[in-house]
Amino acid sequence: MVAIARFLNVTLIVPELDKASFWADPSEFQDIFDIDHFIASLRDEVRILKELPPRLKTRVGLGMFYSLPPVSWSNISYYLHQILPLVQKHKVVHLNKTDARLANNGLPLEIQKLRCRVNFNALRFTSQIEELGRRVVRILREKGPFLVLHLRYEMDMLAFSGCTHGCNDKEAEELTRMRYAYPWWKEKIIDSKVKRREGLCPLTPEETALILSALGIDRNVQIYIAAGQIYGEERRMATLAAAFPNLVRKETLLEPSDLRFFQNHTSQMAALDYLVSLESDIFVPTYDGNMAKVVEGHRRFLGFKKTIQLDRRLLVNLVDEYKNGSLSWDEFSSTVKEAHAYRVGSPSRRVVIPDRPKEEDYFYSNPHECLQLLDEPL
């Protein structure tokens, strides 16, 4: 949105955050990000205001504005020819969806670099979140190296994706009910087995335990779980805890008093996990959601820090073959290692798939226009 406002030469109002989602988080932008730094650091690029000027606020109060979701993955000419005339006509345009609304590729280089500047410099968490993040990292570092496991196995993720592998009938029914209860989740009838086979499901904690072991991760390493509440936690985490006894979370490393301001503010809790994820020796996401992709790109920006990009489609089939006895442990482990030898966040160009932006590499997971590739002069 900053890049679009800059290109159109229009004023940007600090974004309002969605409060109607599953998490029902009341946080405002300034509860998560340092708003003054955000505005000041971009002042030579775009005019950003905390709120609408009084005259325009009155217009909006009277319903005199235009609201729309921009078309996903649009190029800059769409905003120039479709959105800018609306701003000129209505004075205020409310873009009510802002995720993945700009193409990954084919944009002017200065736009791509501005997207990086916003993401890696202008968007800084509040001092309270930053300070707590540093404390968690310090506690972990005192005990040696650590791996962050972004374990996307919360209730909303499973209900939304329709992935019920490893769940009992009662749990599968509960997840289906939840999916039908949320009207903005469009896909209702989902075949969990097919989806899992195609690699479109988050890996289960049990699958993750096998895969980390197969990759040769030291069983005594500290593993920080970056996640909300794991669905069916005690039962579902037992295998992972047995394989890797040093599992920790922010809730186990900090005192309850440290987190009291963050309770029921899942975005602020996620911000804390984000900071710890950036600093880890290895980052392993079990699903490629928005946070996992942006952490991956940020770690590339910080010097291509190791991020293991799991090939879920291959892995679930290998896990099934190992479990049914078709593969020995040694065969399973060597195949997993071989498949991921080059999937570690090393310098590379984004994969571009014309006309299929959802399937190509996401800009923020590998913003190569902003990165110092190893074979390029500084």
Describe this structure in words.
Pathway: Glycan metabolism. InterPro entries: FucosylTrfase_pln, GDP-Fuc_O-FucTrfase. It comes from Vitis rotundifolia (Muscadine grape). One of its GO terms (molecular function) is glycosyltransferase activity. The chain is of the alpha/beta class and 378 residues long. Helix content is 45%, strand content 7%. The protein has helices at residues 2-8, 29-32, 35-41, 54-61, 76-90, 109-122, 127-141, 155-161, 169-181, 192-197, 205-214, 233-243, 250-253, 266-279, 290-301, 312-323, 329-339, and strands at 12-13, 48-49, 66-68, 93-95, 146-150, 222-225, 247-248, 282-285. The longest helix is centred in the first third of the chain and has 15 residues, at 76-90. It is globular, with a radius of gyration of 22 Å. The two termini are 29 Å apart.
Q: What are its keywords?
A:
378 residues; alpha/beta; FucosylTrfase_pln; glycosyltransferase activity
Give the helix/strand layout.
Layout: H1 2-8, E1 12-13, H2 29-32, H3 35-41, E2 48-49, H4 54-61, E3 66-68, H5 76-90, E4 93-95, H6 109-122, H7 127-141, E5 146-150, H8 155-161, H9 169-181, H10 192-197, H11 205-214, E6 222-225, H12 233-243, E7 247-248, H13 250-253, H14 266-279, E8 282-285, H15 290-301, H16 312-323, H17 329-339
Parallel strand pairs: 1-2, 3-4, 5-6, 5-8, 6-7
Helix pairs in contact: 1-6, 7-14, 8-9, 11-12, 14-15, 16-17
Strand content: 5-15%
Number of strands: 8
The backbone outline, from C-alpha atoms, is globular
Output the number of helix runs. Answer: 17
The main sheet orders its strands as 7-6-5-8
Termini separation: 29 Å
The helix content is 40-55%
Q: What class, by secondary structure content?
A: alpha/beta
Q: How big is the Rg?
A: 22 Å
Average pLDDT over all residues: 94
Secondary-structure element string:
HEHHEHEHEHHEHHHHEHEHHEHHH
Unreliably modeled segments: none
Give the biggest beta sheet.
4 strands, parallel
GO molecular function, one term: glycosyltransferase activity
Pathway: Glycan metabolism
Protein name: O-fucosyltransferase family protein
GO biological process, one term: fucose metabolic process
